[in-house]
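Structure tokens please, single chain.
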Amino acid sequence: APSAQAMFRKIGRSGQHLLGVVNDILDFSKIDAGKLNVESKCLNPQQIAEEAFGVLTDKAQSKGLTFTLANEGLPDWIMGDSLRIKQILLNLLGNAVKFTEHGSVTLTMRQTSTTLMFAVTDTGIGMNLQMMKRVFSPFEQADNSTTRQYGGTGLGLTISRQLARLMGGDLTVNSQVGVGSTFTLS
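Here you go.
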């Protein structure tokens, strides 16, 4: 029989999963109704990236992944919504770790003349063109087997893209089956 401690861990994980589903549905509903507002406050993008990165470090290392944070030139301060940027980065990094069995996950940060870019690159399962077209649609994942094998609601990337666009940016993907994916938040 499973120990009480193992049962409590399982209950805790189930509760966290359920909370995540509820929060995704609430965010999706607020965005759909035009009721979700984004803030514009002074923030340090490096600090936000480090916080999001830190949340997933143990999980990545437990899978034996090389987990790298690369700053190719960020400003010390920008105006934006730190909570929503971190939410997007957590989703992208969490997906990258979830869909990568071996190899690496890298968060690269850089600035173009007018735009701040966060690129999450993995060596995971990757997607073909048809999958990439569906991945940002609500309640969709790359394919039906993805939900069975990896779980999830199919809302994380939809919400992340909508949040990016509410902040005046975007979320895009470039991927190849068996090679990996790069999701870029601008």
